[in-house]
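can u do me a favor
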């Protein structure tokens, strides 16, 4: 929204979203406790230096950075049953360069507005223009059916994984498992702020889907070379980005309200946040609206307490691949709950959330859990296309 008046209209238009639901009162008693099915999740954190005992060792040694290849990485071998994305195969197709031009226009808008929202039809066209396969679309729409219980939120099913967007090797690769933490200092104020959380890992059915891989290429092209407000204790001199990817299903039942942002107004502790809609079931049209706020808005307040003067935009993911990107340290955001059409049945909303930031310094809260080592059991590496750099 381009003005204070339009922002006020957004609040008025969304008034039904701001009313609390009576079923939310059961939330505290419904908390579930999650034990990962992956023993290595527990082992990984047990071997880390405790966060309270002083600075942990660097997540990667200096010589490791020096040894990074300066040449373009070759794509990983194709895995049977999957057709992975290789943007280099598009080099002689005119549609590829038309797609690049469209993405560069979106990049200009992102640079100007610090946020973009790309609707389904355009996003699908861009993914296919980058070389993704149309036959991979059905798999993206059902991948959330295989999610696992979230460690701290009873209304959410989750998997996550970490990737490196490497602008030195012009590639994106899967990184080894690490736990996850967000703190109040990073503008994330929730009852589990600061807790070290362990999620079950994303599998090949998602990471080897060419539509999913094209989303990464799209994001890399948008953020490449853009100046942003720096967060403390991040290594902005390193030509790489760490992306923590969450595959999420937010669930509302007759007994508990599913809230995509229980934490209220917040930031995600990263540099760039991208959210992509995969699908929903039994969800009302006024559910899960995203509100964007300037940095003056108070962190942690519920949506019904936001100040219209701080509201800078409102969007709503409704169709497959509707995608929002936000410069996370320059825009806070909040979301309304998932409401059911039929209150006697479950409703859910499936999303991909891409948290992308620079690698952390050793004194950062995640300094001991920000490895750049590749994943050995679930490897993935594909080329990136960076205009002006390839």
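np, heres the sequence
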């Amino acid at each position: 929204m381009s003005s204070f008046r339009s922002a006020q209209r957004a609040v008025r238009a969304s008034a039904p979203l701001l009313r609390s639901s009576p079923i939310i009162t059961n939330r505290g008693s419904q908390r579930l406790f999650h034990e990962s099915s992956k023993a290595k999740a527990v082992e990984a954190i047990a071997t880390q230096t405790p966060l309270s005992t002083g600075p942990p060792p660097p997540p990667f040694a200096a010589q490791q950075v020096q040894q990074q290849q300066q040449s373009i990485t070759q794509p990983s071998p194709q895995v049977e049953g999957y057709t992975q994305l290789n943007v280099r195969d598009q080099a002689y197709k005119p549609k590829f360069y038309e797609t690049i031009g469209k993405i560069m226009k979106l990049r200009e808008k992102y640079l100007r507005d610090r946020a973009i929202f790309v609707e389904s039809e355009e996003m699908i066209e861009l993914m296919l223009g980058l070389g993704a396969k149309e036959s991979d679309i059905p798999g993206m729409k059902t991948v959330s059916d295989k999610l696992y219980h979230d460690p701290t939120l009873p209304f959410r099913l989750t998997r996550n994984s970490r990737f490196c967007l490497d602008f030195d090797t012009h590639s994106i690769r899967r990184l080894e498992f690490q736990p996850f933490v967000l703190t109040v200092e990073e503008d994330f104020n929730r009852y589990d702020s600061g807790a070290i959380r362990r999620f079950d890992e994303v599998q090949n059915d998602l990471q080897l889907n060419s539509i999913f891989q094209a989303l990464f290429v799209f994001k890399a092209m948008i953020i490449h070379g853009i100046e942003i407000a720096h967060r403390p204790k991040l290594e902005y001199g390193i030509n790489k980005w760490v992306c923590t990817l969450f595959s999420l299903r937010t669930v509302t039942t007759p007994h508990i309200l599913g809230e995509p942002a229980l934490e209220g107004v917040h930031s995600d502790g990263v540099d760039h946040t991208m959210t992509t809609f995969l699908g929903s079931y039994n969800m009302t049209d006024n559910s899960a609206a995203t509100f964007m706020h300037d940095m003056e808005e108070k962190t942690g307040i519920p949506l019904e307490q936001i100040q219209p003067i701080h509201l800078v935009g409102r969007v709503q993911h409704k169709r497959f691949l509707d995608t929002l990107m936000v410069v996370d340290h320059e825009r806070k955001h909040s979301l309304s709950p998932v409401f059911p059409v039929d209150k006697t049945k479950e409703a859910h909303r499936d999303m991909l959330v891409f948290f992308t930031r620079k690698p952390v310094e050793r004194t950062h809260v995640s300094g001991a859990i920000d490895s750049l080592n590749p994943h050995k059991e679930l490897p993935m590496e594909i080329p990136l296309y960076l205009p002006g750099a390839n």
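The radius of gyration is 20 Å. hope that helps!!
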